[in-house]
Design a protein that fits this description.
The protein is α+β, with helices and mostly antiparallel strands. Helix content is 26%, strand content 35%. The chain is built from four helices and eight strands. The strands form two sheets. A five-stranded antiparallel β-sheet has the order 1-2-3-4-5, sandwiched between helices. A hairpin with a 3-residue loop joins strand 1 and strand 2. The chain binds coenzyme A. Coenzyme A (COA) binds next to strand 5, helix 3 and helix 4.
Amino acid sequence: MGWIETERLLLRRFKPFDEPSMRQVFMDPKVMQYSMGTKSVEDVGQWLSARLTEDPRDTGSRIFAVTLRSGGSAIGYCGVTDTPDIDGEELPEIGYRLRRDAWGRGYGTESAIAVRDYAFSTLGKTRLVALIDPDNLASIRVAERLGMVFLKQIMLPGYDHPDHLYGLWRG
Ligand SMILES: CC(C)(COP(=O)(O)OP(=O)(O)OC[C@H]1O[C@@H](n2cnc3c(N)ncnc32)[C@H](O)[C@@H]1OP(=O)(O)O)[C@@H](O)C(=O)NCCC(=O)NCCS
């Protein structure tokens, strides 16, 4: 399946014209506050190229452009990726980032719920995890709305403080 529809959103494959929007995501210090800093124009271009060439049959990674059903370019992304080393285990990780002008309207929760269901029903995942900075209250709230629970602290390479691992098992 190439796309997911929710009440207000269309999660679709990325397109080249999403690049300015994704710059607004990855180059905004506020959006990247709890990540490892902002990205450069080149980084964003490479990130988008990787999305454009992703094989839609790949069950290891699906990263969707989050768009409004009314159309337009991406307001962010939401997806699931098999992350090779989470405390020695390969686990499917859900990730989401939205442009700042799209925050606070429930789009983060709406897109993440759709991706959670897609990961379990279409990709056949049995677990889903999220790695979240303990100060990132909005992201923690999204994880909780997905039904995720705090599992443990994890120290990631290059970080100066532990992230929190949240997890969910297929019901
Ligand atoms: C995380 C993110 C996608 C949430 O998007 P959003 O559309 O604003 O989220 P929602 O509107 O669905 O809100 C989710 C919940 O978080 C709460 N929330 C939102 N911003 C908050 C904040 N700054 N502090 C505390 N709670 C907050 C909302 O009230 C809501 O709670 P509720 O379910 O009890 O009503 C968005 O904040 C973002 O892109 N952040 C930067 C990137 C990032 O940190 N990604 C996650 C990396 S782990």
